[in-house]
Please model this.
Amino acid sequence: MQNLVNSMGKKGKLGWNSALIGAASVTAAAAAFKLGKPKDPTFRLISITLTSFKLHLPVLDAELILTVHVTNPNIVPVKYSSSTMSIYYEGSLLGSAHINAGSTAPRSCQLLRLPTRLDGLELTQHATRFLADVARREMVLDAAVDLDGVAKVLWWEHRFKIHVDSRVVVDPVFLDVIDQENKSQMELFPG
Model:
């Protein structure tokens, strides 16, 4: 009889130990999911630097460097492929900026310097509006880009695509950034 009581006591302890370990595992998994839930990175245009003018009679093309501050709020590093950002003025494609493939460490930020070319011929299509913008020293530009990438969690790679829309108000005389609004939307794909 004593053996039966001892074995039942051990089974009872084993059951409680298993339940506690299970509960702790579920709590840890829930916390990891909450912390590991992907967040959209943030983008902020810091500066615009004019690098050159190219005369293509009768218009003048401009080459610029856009300095963009990127923040990865996630607990994993991300790698992204090269892409091209389209820049619009009054709804027309004005130019593009090249984004080289790269990576961003977890919970970090970095500055990207994007070589950009603006088409002077396209700007002449909106000459009246552009001259008015120069006179009031405010020009609204829109930009859009899609970035494909991979975030690696342990041994699983999760593909993602992020779409960013930006509206930037710049001073067309001194190329100062006056205001901006950036919206990003991330789509995750099964890994």
Remarks:
- The chain is about 25% helix and 55% strand.
- The first strand starts at residue 42 and ends at 56.
- The mean pLDDT is 83.
- Helices lie at 2-36, 120-124, 127-136.
